[in-house]
Amino acid sequence: MITLDSFLTGFLQVMDVWVILFIVLGTILGILFGAAPGLTASTAIAMFLPITFGMEANAAFAFLLAIYCAGLYAGSIPAILISTPGAPGNAATVMDGYPMCQSGRAGRALTLSVMASCIGGLFSALCLFFLSPVISSFALKFGPPEYFAISLMGITCVASVTGKDTIKGLTGTLLGLTIAMIGMDPVSGNLRFTFGQSSMITGVGLIPVLVGLFAMPEVFAQTENIGRETIVKIQEFKTDRPRFAEYWSKKVLLVKSSIIGTIVGAIPGTGSTIASWFAYNEAKRTSKTPEEFGKGSAEGIVACESANNAVTGGALIPLITLGIPGDGVAAMLLGALTVQGLAPGPLLLVDHSEILTYFLWVLILSNILMTVMGLYGSKYAPKILSIPFRYLSPFIVVFCAIGAYSSANSFFDVKAMIVLGFLGYVLKKVGFPAPTIALGFVLGSIVEFNLVRSLIVSHGNPLIFFQKPVSLTIIILTVLMTFLMFKRTKTS
Amino acid sequence: MKKADIITGVVLIIFSIFGLMEIATWKELANIGISIKFYPTLIFAAIGLCGAIILGRAVFALKGNTRTVEFRWSTLLPVAFVSLLYAVAIRYIGFAVPTLLFLAAFMYLFGERRWKHLVLISVLGAVLLYIIFIKMLAIQI
User: What distance lies between CA B1 and its chain's CA centroid?
Assistant: First the structure.
């Protein structure tokens, strides 16, 4: 239960020198990775996650959350300056950001982007704080059928909205579930798909899978550009000063887009790409000047970026309350929580109520720092965008290798990470998005354990999932949401 | 994409058959109320079904997709091989030397040809990484 004491405790925990230092470092790294070509916030978190194993829990979470916030925003910088989004979630920003830059207003576009990102991020942080206790107390009553239904919702959402092909999305998720089966059966203890190898008894680790699927494919993808690098030319610009009146006049748009980002972020498997396009389409639909969209509309940039960063708080809601990550980055944060001895789920807020207020203050501070650095640091963006990938690539691999090794002191994990990275790249090329495989892997143990337990309790009767009211409701919502998301994705 | 989808569909079906054959060899060690083969069979059957759908769509051109999939194997395979070699080398040789060589080799594969850059960045990088990971973070590698 959240009390004033836990609220103040969370604040005091943030006011620690090392925590603030790591928030600053995380913000800088998030901006660098988000803005740099070929890298994303996911890559940064995958690379630096293993480094946090030896850190104190507070500093570790502050570091990773700061990277997350700043990284999601910073992808808008190349989107605006060179029409190349830093991450898929910033693709919608290109629509109006680049035309605004081409008309000589790059500084204004960058300012709109960072301010909208800050507002969206702060809004979702508050939603995380107020909604999580409510959801958590409700989830305490969940049994195996309800948990199975929730994880099934996550899987079907992932499959239906990630990528352009639902069948391939579903197959990716099934492949993730298959990888999760390697090792010991969680119910019977039977060894599966180990082929006599002792190193495979404990299965494939979470960190090697996430690092392999999120960071390594980016490296392999850049092999396509070897010998074909282009020199990026960016015009000089000055960042505009933000004016309160401008954002106040767009308050309805900001709140609406932030709500879209928070809700979409809270649905497992969706993420910032869906959120930003939803918000953009909605802004255009309700705008008094829809003809300006696509030609440098300020509303277009504000809608995309506030929804994009509102995903940060939203994705943490199901992670903290149910133990189900809202997106790929949240899946990695699940790994961070587990390593630090904190089991995400409804009991997390019962046993560690101060963690929610701590996350709130970290997100507030991260968004403020991100805004300051974005406003005053954007002028260095051309330098970041011109870093050749051939200097970054080997360091990414070394970081990933050490990260995969340090999770369980196993060289098998390093090899598994590289093999999975290669497979992830090949599968991505033929239309299987990496997030589907990663989320399938993360949800695999939850799905199997709760499905088998439910069937054991019901003596093999599958109707148990429809006889429990909460489980039935979740299944109906899943079908409805999947249909709506599928329809909207196709329309978009 | 059609050719890629046909290959993908066939591979998924073969993978599914392999999985189901492996599952068939398992023995039920204890009666827990539900077969240990139930869940894995469900997953592999679903993979086989998805593979069949992808294959069928590609063969009968039900889903129009003219995008071609191209791999630059000439650059991809050396990078993948060197990465795997590095993973093996750090196990048997240690961290410092393989990392130094790997940094240089990787930059070379990615197109860096100035030897001064190759030497300087790989030496400085290896030293920095050694200090951070082995000394400061005490990773036992």
Answer: 21
User: Residue B48 falls within a domain, yes or no?
Assistant: yes
Q: Residue A429 CB: number of other CB atoms within 10 A?
A: 17
Shared domain for B88 and B129, answered yes or no, is yes
Q: Are A159 and A169 in contact (CB under 8 A)?
A: yes
Check: pTM over 0.90? Answer yes or no: no
Distance CA A451, CA A147 (A): 9
A220, A398, A452: residue with CB nearest B129:
A398
Nearest CA in chain A to B81: A418
Interacting residues of A89 by C-beta distance below 8 A, sequence separation 6+: A72, A75, A271, A272, A273, A275, A276, A308, A311
Residue A191 sits at φ, ψ, to 5 deg, of: -85, 135
Are the Cβ atoms of B107 and A390 closer than 8 angstroms?
Answer: yes
Closest in A223, A409, A422 to B72, CB measured? A223
Q: Is A167 in Cβ contact with B72 (below 8 Å)? A: no
Same domain (yes/no): B79, B127:
yes
Contact A411 B91 (CB under 8 A): yes
Distance CA A489, CA A386 (A): 34
From A35-44, A76-85, A120-129, A418-427, the region with the lowest mean pLDDT: A35-44
Chain A hits for B40, CB-CB cut-off 8 Å, are: 181, 192
Contacts with A105 (C-beta within 8 Å, 6 or more apart), sequence order? A296
CA distance A375 to chain B (A): 31
Same domain, residue pair B50 and B84: no
Q: Is the pLDDT of residue A492 over 60?
A: no
Rounded Cα–Cα distance for residues B39 and A451 (Å): 8
Answer for the pair A306, A119: CB distance below 8 angstroms, yes or no. Answer: yes
Contact of A374 with A80, CB cutoff 8 Å:
no
**B130: domain range?**
73-136
The predicted-structure confidence for A208-260, as pLDDT tens digits, reads as follows: 888 888 888 888 988 888 887 766 666 667 777 778 888 888 899 999 999 99
Asked if B90 and A226 come within 8 Å (Cβ–Cβ), the reply is: no
Contact predicate A357/A320, CB 8 Å: no
- Check: CB of residue A146 under 8 Å from CB of residue A285: no
Nearest to A456 among B33, B47, B71 (CB): B33
Enter the ipTM. Answer: 0.90
CA separation for the pair A74, A40 (Å, rounded)? 9
Q: Which of B19, B34, B36 sits opposite A190 (nearest CB)?
A: B36
Name the token pair of A457. Answer: 């309790």
A197, A223, A399, A423, best to mutate vs chain B, most B CBs in 10 Å: A223
Q: Look up residue A442 and give its two tokens.
A: 């993360």
Same domain? B129 vs B94: yes
Residue A116 Cα, gap to closest chain B Cα (Å): 35
In order of A111, A171, A262, B87, the CA distances from A149 in angstroms are 43, 19, 22, 40
Structural domain count, chain B: 2
Asked if the Cβ–Cβ distance from A411 to B19 is below 8 Å, we say no
Kindly state the helix (H) or strand (E) to which residue A183 belongs, with its residue range. strand A183-184
